[in-house]
Write a structure and sequence with these properties.
By secondary structure, this protein is an alpha/beta fold. It has three domains: 1-94 and 189-208, D-Maltodextrin-Binding Protein, domain 2, CATH 3.40.190.10; 101-175, D-Maltodextrin-Binding Protein, domain 2 (3-Layer(aba) Sandwich); 210-287, Porphobilinogen deaminase, C-terminal domain (Double Stranded RNA Binding Domain), CATH 3.30.160.40. Helices cover 36% and strands 23% of the residues. Helix 1 links the parallel strand 1 and strand 2 (30-35). The protein starts with a strand and ends with a helix.
Length: 294
């Protein structure tokens, strides 16, 4: 059987698709990659919220799966929205790479004045933890962001460490502690989505990692109960059933944070509901500041 792998066309997306391809071919399954263009890739000069949020990277691939143009789609799991088409399921979650953010810069911390990122979470965490820093919007794929750093548009930029690792990049800078700079839910994880087809699901089960699936599904359970949307400064991270979750104000001056052992989806859902209740004012404030209706 040959499996058609749908992917975005960026270098990182292709590297992730190739990882899945190698794993499947090791199981005796032949593959071919099909590149799908998404609005998020085509419109890099505007803020992400102006074109529909991080879900714009996923919807075009979802549509291709539902039409039958591809058999599976490969995503950075953190990009997958909470609400999913009923026809689709996550057939495999690969072993997690680094969940951490990475501050890329050749400068010492005292010489960094401007940091580039398009993430509200990273923006709020930087403002909380790094005094005197100006944060400026930065979009584009990894290569585009690194070029803007090289061109001195920024003193530093923030990337997901896993992305750099998948591209075999050795970058100057420092790994940001994920217990302080709590990552986005599912950061560092590759997910493989498919239709609810028994044959495809069986094939994907051979490359699924149960430990990563457990941790990331607990993270998603918290995220789904918060119902915060992709522009909330929200970090959720589970490692070996220990949860750290936080919601921040955009200026980084206020936060609601939970650290707790979590052993079931039900418990994670209760914690998510608690965060939604206690941090609702912070969430609403973030959206008002961004001028986004919920």
């Amino acid at each position: 059987m040959s499996v058609r792998i749908g992917t975005r066309g960026s270098r990182l997306a292709l590297a992730q698709a190739q990882t899945v391809s190698r794993l499947l071919e090791a199981e005796g399954v032949s593959t071919e990659c099909v590149i799908i263009s998404t609005p998020g890739d085509e419109k890099t000069g505007v803020p992400l919220h102006a074109i529909g949020g991080s879900g714009v990277f996923v919807r075009a691939l979802d549509d291709a799966l539902i039409r039958g143009d591809i058999d599976i789609a490969v995503h950075s799991m953190k990009d997958i929205p909470a609400e999913r088409p009923k026809e689709l399921t996550t057939g495999a979650i690969l072993v997690r790479d680094s969940p951490a953010d990475f501050l890329v810069s050749e400068k010492n911390r005292e010489n960094i004045a401007i940091i580039g990122t398009s993430s509200t979470r990273r923006t709020a965490q930087i403002r909380r933890n790094m005094q005197g820093i100006t944060v400026r919007s930065l979009r584009g794929n990894v290569d585009t962001r690194l070029k803007k750093l090289k061109d001195a548009e920024y003193d530093a930029i923030v990337l997901a460490e896993a992305g750099a690792q998948r591209l075999s990049l050795t970058l100057p800078g420092v790994r940001l502690d994920p217990t302080v700079y709590v990552p986005s839910p599912n950061q560092g994880t590759i997910a493989v989505v498919c239709q609810r087809d028994e044959t495809i699901c069986t094939i994907l089960s051979h490359i699924d990692d149960p430990v990563t699936r457990n941790d990331t599904m607990l993270e998603r359970s918290v995220m789904e109960q918060i119902e915060a949307g992709c522009f909330t400064p929200l970090g959720v991270y589970v490692q070996e059933n220990f949860l750290i979750a936080e919601v921040l104000s955009l200026d980084g001056k206020k936060q609601y944070r939970v650290e707790e052992e979590v052993t079931s989806v039900r418990q994670a859902e209760v914690i998510g509901k608690q965060i939604k209740k206690e941090a609702s004012a912070l969430i609403e404030e973030a959206y008002r500041t961004l001028g986004i209706s919920r």
